């Protein structure tokens, strides 16, 4: 991933031009495995006024759930010649030298002697899974003249974090307006089709339709979904229609559970209008055509 997010947080004319990009990187030996790939923030800044800034501060507010790899940051502080790069390599431009850093909660505060142009990378890891995070913020300002500043926000997108795992492991979770079109394109005689309701971390099987395990109708059973998958359609108290071409009822010994993966589609059951359309489609297009596929 190599996408820049450069969204000014203020209408004032900035003293710096700042850009932040998010990149995937290799994990170090010391880093514990997390659902999210190890990431790197690349921060680029340019002083827009004459000469160079005074001592400058780069204040990085991390996205919730992420922390900095402090060991890597310490190495960069000790070996700045391997870390600090120019934003542009024009003759006579001054190199920004990292003097020290502080970590205060979600903020990583970097101190530079001055900035004309600067490029600095910060290794971060996901320490806690937080869904629907707010953007992070990078603020660059002159230490002796804090009004000389600039801010940008950045996002860590799901694809930055999980890449192809979203497509390969997550169910398709949909809220649709045209349910008839969804039905026509996705539900047929070979589908597995169930209506469920999420209750206190379990799933109540309210109705089992095509090829489903009828013995589980009205049962309340466990379910599994990869923890990084965003799916409001299975929030507590929500009733949903679940369908797919593979059986999502899984048996482990005597226990049966629902497993929602990339072969499963989940759409919110949105009331009487959907109920009436569903009954019509089931009677006219499924029950009459697919009775040989039904169990029970």
Automatic annotation (TrEMBL):
CC annotations in GO: extracellular region
Sequence intervals crossing the membrane: none
Record InterPro entries: A-macroglobulin_rcpt-bd, A-macroglobulin_rcpt-bd_sf, A2M/Complement_sys, TIMP-like_OB-fold
Coiled coil: none
SUPFAM superfamilies documented for this protein: Alpha-macroglobulin receptor domain (SSF49410), TIMP-like (SSF50242)
Pfam families: A2M_recep
Gene3D superfamilies named among the record's database cross-references: Alpha-macroglobulin, receptor-binding domain
UniProt name for this protein: Pregnancy zone -like
Organism expressing this protein natively: Paramuricea clavata (Red gorgonian)
